[in-house]
Amino acid sequence: MKRLILLIVTLAMGATRLFAAHLCPSTGRVVDEQGKAVEYATVVLLKGTEQVTGMATDAEGRFTLKAAPGEYTLQIQYLGFDPVKKLVRVEQENDLGDFVMRNAATGIESVVVAAQLVRREADRFVVDVANAPAAIGKDGVELLERAPGVWIDGEKISINGKSGSKVYINDRELRMEPEQLLTYLRSLRAEEIQKIEVVPTSGADYDADSAGGIIRITLKKRRENGIDGSVAFNTRQGEMLHRYSPSANINIHSGRLDFYASAWGTFGKDKTTTDEQTLYNAADKTLNAHSEMKGRNRNFGASAGTVFEINPRHSVGAEVEYWHDWAPEPNDSYTDFLDGGTTTHTDSYYDKFDRRNNISATFNYIWKIDTLGSTLKLLLDYTRRENEGLNDNFSRITTPEAVVDSVYRDNAVSRYNIATATLALEKNFSPKWSLKAGAKYTYNDMHNDALYEYRKGDAWLRNDNQSFTINYTENIAAAYGIVSAKLGGWNLVAGLRGEYTHTTGKGVGQDYFSLFPNANISYSLSRKKGYSLIAQYARTIERPRFWTLNPQRMQISDYTYQTGNPSLDPSFKHDVSLTLVMAHKYSLTGGVQIVNDEIQQTMKADPENPDLLQLAWVNYDATKSYYVSANLPFQPTKWWQFNANLTYMRRGQRVEQHGAEEFFNWGFINLSTTFTLPAKFYIDMSYRYQSRLDLGNCWVKPDHRVQVGVKKRFGERFTASFSVENLLDQGQVIGARGDGFVRTVNVKQMWSNRSYRVGLTYNFKSGKAFKRKAVEAGSADEKSRL
Fold this sequence. Notes:
This protein is mostly beta strands. It contains 5 helices and 47 strands. The protein has 2 domains: 23-110, Immunoglobulin-like; 118-783, Maltoporin, Chain A, CATH 2.40.170.
């Protein structure tokens, strides 16, 4: 590791002599009237009316601008403050000193900031929400849909077509179910968000299990003692769902103490209907089935945390979070199975009930080592989750010869324990050089017990073929180092992470060590015109989600069931990409992702009864995906904003080892536009297209979605919104082809059919604005596997 870091530093120092001779770095700091740092203020150098260079201040209010020697106009802007303009002279290695910003007397809306909405840094895109008046009135999901490369489809968030993306709020991952995550993001208002960072390829400071990229949302920070918070209510109504989602949060800052708490709930009903046809081409058999699942959701949760600043350099924090998920989903199903000239009719009732409890606790200690923003962090986390699944099933099978009743049930209990300890150092040697290094230990423990029984006469008998007890434990030790350098027009970020994993359970034990390098190199082709080129590489791992390892059997319909696979192996991924940024905001990315042992679902015949179909998790042998992604934001007028996100992927996959490699073409289009009208009205429209997707022997047919909505702001505290989602009301068509069968299913569900959403949000505050701190966690990547 030491040799690798020394080599990177030596090469970078050599590059400095070649590329930085003609540019002079000028440093400075932006503070408020109390002398406190102003984070994320926009600082630009102007030559006449043309912008030469610019950036946003860091957490300490510092900035570094590189330009040719000479005289310039320095301009600083930030919402809520009066703009600052000053003539400065750029010389070799000069310090411009502190710049004081004063609170705007006319209020936040009088400040007009001419900043680029999207900018590219060495390893990420940054959406500058706070300095973009066009973002006002949008929620978190709408902003993410406009972020470069981000795709939100139902319950899934992906970057450049790569699923498994993780979402962080103020350095803490949102550890929620997918539906709850989107509900929370919709409760966020643009006025609360400072910036959104899209990291397509994660670095060595993240767990190697971060192959889908990272989305980081930074909320605005206040600066004086006081209280603020919000209450919100959203409801979605439609043929397939009736849902009500209240939420509230409060933040208190007093002296050196921060306290924050939030609560949310989701209550209502939803419905999913499926119509299935299966053709058994190896025999004269046909299946037609209809199922209707009705869900009744009672989900709620709360969290509370506190941060105490011992002194300006030392702070401690603690947070606790609890949520409960209560979800009965009874399913009525009937099936006609034609075998030659004989029809077997089955009527079934599957009474499915799931209950989950989750509690998490976090403690951290943070030491600010110097005034350059260097920190040392100790993070301790613990999470416990208990899942219980109950299924009482009844089927009546009618043939020309007889009527047979089948009664069976199962009870599956899963318990998960996750503990992590993280030590992380970030050392900034200068505005141009920094080093990150750290170590982490992770303990993952999973226990699954399932009892399957069938009724014979008046007695319940155990089904030994399906009942199971599976315990699985992981011990993961990791260490990493990352070097960052800013050298003239070059930005370099290179790191290496090593992880040693020891597992027990699933009938076997495993020990393996892997290295995960990553590198990001960007070069500014033209500072004035905003052209730059960025190259990225990373090797990552995807460990199986805990629920994919659980072999619990869930009946989808009379002849189809879903199950996990305790024999799944982790998959390893190589990701290479090249991005061209034009005019600071337009971007074009091309890349390839190569995956060994990719974890996906497949459909196959049941080994004991080939008439039954099994939806199971398996490891593909190898896949490779070539992709091109473009983000094109336009603003034809002050009141009209248009954004296009386009992704094309050429995907090759080999399911079986030594099998044939098949190639498929995927396409994603996301077009959105916003009209800002007088009296604080906003009209939003969007169109989303997803081409046919083929995964192994399964496929999803093309999907079109249209959404129209209107928002109205009343002052600065109250916002009301109404939208129609999935205006086309198409539903989804999915299918599978295997040895001896072809299956097609038409699905109508809440994510793919028309619904109406109404939202109300009220923000309150008492006292002056204040600086809100949050507890940072270290187990985010592990918790996502739940």
